[in-house]
Structures are given as structure tokens and as C-alpha cells.
Specification:
Helix content is 45%, strand content 13%. By secondary structure, it is α/β, with parallel strands linked by helices. The strands form 2 sheets. Strands 5, 6, 7, 8, 9, 10, 11 and 12 form an 8-stranded mixed β-sheet that branches. Strands 2-3-1-4 form a 4-stranded antiparallel β-sheet. Strand 2 (205-207) and strand 3 form a beta hairpin.
Amino acid sequence: MALSPARTLACDVITRVRQRDAYAHETLSAALSHHHLSAPDAAFATRLAYGTIACRGTLDEIVTAQLSRPKSTDPVVIDALALSAWELYFSDTVSYAIVDQGVELIHTLKGPRYRSLANALLRRLAGARAAFPFADPRTDPAAHARQHGHPVWLARYLRARFGFDTADCLMAVNNEPAPLYLAHLPFSTDFDEVMARLEDQRARPVLGPVPGCIEIGVPSAVVASPLLSSRDVVVIDAAAQQCVALARAQAGQSLVEIGSGRGTKTLLLAANARRGGGPAKVRGIDLHEFKTNVLSADAKRLGAWEVDALSADVTQRDFIDWAAAHNLTEADTVFIDAPCSGLGTLRRHPDKRWRLQQADIGRAAQLGSALLQTAARLLHSDGMLIYATCTISAEENEDQIADFLSSELGSQFESQPVVNSELPPTFADALTKRGQFQTLPTHHGPDGHFCARLKKKRAG
């Protein structure tokens, strides 16, 4: 049986990610751009690479258990075995085909002397397939983690927070391909034109749940779309778009986004204001100047003249003085796009699952708290403070807001609950008891995002 070129490319990506501690998406994109695979082979290579990288810790556990001297085994051989193990334990491909292709892959990569070893190891792995995950997931958290290719600490955390059934669903969703949502930016093209161009590209676009949101049926059809390079549309999850919509940006307002990055949400805030009647003054602030430079260039190219990008460290003591000098301290709305653990978007970042540690949740919460304390000082009386994350942890979300409201500065604010009439049917179940917006990753649906609104009390 001839070796599939998709497996060769996928294994190369897996090796490069391991060797360089690189990002999976960037590494795979570069590899695909240098190889002319057919569309089916490119899709298969993506599935193999992302699946193996996402489940790598579990796969290494399974593979090394079959090796007599794992530390002295060539790491590239272990990469190839991990790829085959992913197919055996996380796909429905028949075992004999996986074993044959796995032997050919290792033979191609390392030569004939590994052929018999590869054959023996892969047959043992295939023989254990029926017993996987080797214990009862409901009673054994380690087996539950193994079943879905997650770290044990994360399986325990999700079970403790949500219960077994929801945790099981969340981990299963993390192993699925993420849907692709776009947001239309109405600065230089209208929505109907964008939809027509996406139809021409055979992307199968359909209306998403939020105004200007588009769900793409064939993601591969828009990877190289001029609409993306021109920023007439931007990639952003539907739940994240809903968080931006909850800011209720209006014409004439002064809005500040903290943690703007390359400006996707900054531009969307400006776009929403225009949809609501006219331009608002929107400033995006980020620590990294190279990111704010991207936002500045995009805003200029799009004709979004109401958008400014500024680089500053919001955690520094002199930030408020800097903000006052830049006329940022009487804002109508401050939107905090808080750096977070990203537990709601793990399926989009296959390399993150095994890099993330439980302590990262607490560190992210501490940073979010500092941002809240600073951002609250940029608002005028009666202004709105929006706090948004792409995570599903209580520490970074509802507990964070409760802690802020109980603080001295937070006593100047009150919760501004989200109400059902503000949400489309897609998010009908996304309201918490406190009136905050919280989604969980769903099958073929949006990611896990959180948004809380706080209103500054009128002076006096």
C-alpha cells in the first residue's frame, strides 16, 4: 500500500511543533503552502496533525508504555507512532490500514532497519484498541482524560465545575474541527456584496446569529480569500461577536478597548456603531506596538477613520496619567478583552492543551483583576464597563466580577444584566443567574465566551 502524502506532511508538522515548540496553525499553514496536496489530502493532513498535537500527552503515554527504552528511541519514530496511535484511538479507520501506513511512514522516515520494530509496536497498539481508555471514565478521571486526549488536571477541573456529563461533552467538542465564523466590516463593502463573493467562492455562507455574522460551510474555500486579506471580513467566533454586540456601541460615543491585539474587536465596535446610525470614536490599546501597527494600517485601508490604535502598558502605575494626556479618561464605554486561559477555545488551538497548566487560570485571573481596576478609572459617570473572556472558568469570569464589585473601586459600579431580548435564539441558554453572558463550546456551534456588563453609578 503506497504511503499517503498526507501522513508524511502531517508527521513533519508534528515533528516541527515538538522540536521548535511552535504553533500548530502557523506550522501547518507553512507546510501546506510548500506542498501541492489535493484538497482531500490537505484536509486529511490537517486532521492528522491537529488531532495528534491536541492529544499528544495521551498518545505519548500510550506509545511509551509499549517501548522498552523510550528515552533512547528516536523522537521522530515516536512522532510517527503517536500519529498512528491517534488514528487507532481517536478515529474510525480500520486497524490494518493504520498499521500498514504507520509501518510505511516509519520506513520512509528512518529506513528499513525500523520496519520490523514499527510493525511489532503498531500491532500491539492496535491490539489494545478495544480496551481503550483502559478503565471506566465515569469513575476514573485519568481514564476520562485519556478517552478524550486531555491532561488529567483539566478533566478533573471540568468535572468539578460542570459535572461528568457536561465535562464529557466539552472534551469531546475540543476534539472536533472548529466552525468558521466571519464578521462583516461595513466600511468599504456592503453585506450583500460580501455574501455574493463568498457564494462565488463556493464557501456556502449562511447568516450567523449576530448582525453582520456569517457562518462558512466550506472553510477551505475562504482560506486565501481576498475578503480576508482586505479585512472586509474578519475571523471571529459568533459568541465573541455577541460579546461585542452587548457593548451596544452607538454613534457619537467614545469607546476604548483594552487588550485590542490586532484590532478585530476594535474594528467590530466601530462597525456596530456605524450600523446603529453613525461613527463613534474608538480607541484600541494594546501592550504590543506591532499589533497596534496592524490595527492602524487596517483602519486606514478600510476607511475606518474613527479608529485609533495606541500602544501602552495598562498595568503600569502611570497609565492613568498617560490616558488623561491622550483624552481617554471620560469614555462612554470601556471594553476589556481580557487575556485569559482560553479554555473556551481549545479546539482552535491544538498545541495549547498540553502547554496550559492549572496555575495559568489563577495568573490570568490576577491580570484580569488589575485590568478591571485600571479600566474602571477611564469612564465618566454613568459609563459602561464590559469585561469579556474566551474562557469557561469561574475564577476568570463570574468570580472575577464578584470580587471587583466587592472592592472599593467596584462599589462605584453596579451590574447591568443582559436580558433575553438582547440575544438571538442561538444564545437563548447563555444567560447566567447573574445576568451575565456565558457560552460553552458546542458541537458544530460557537466557542466558550463570557461577557459581563457593569455600569458606573451617577455621581452624587
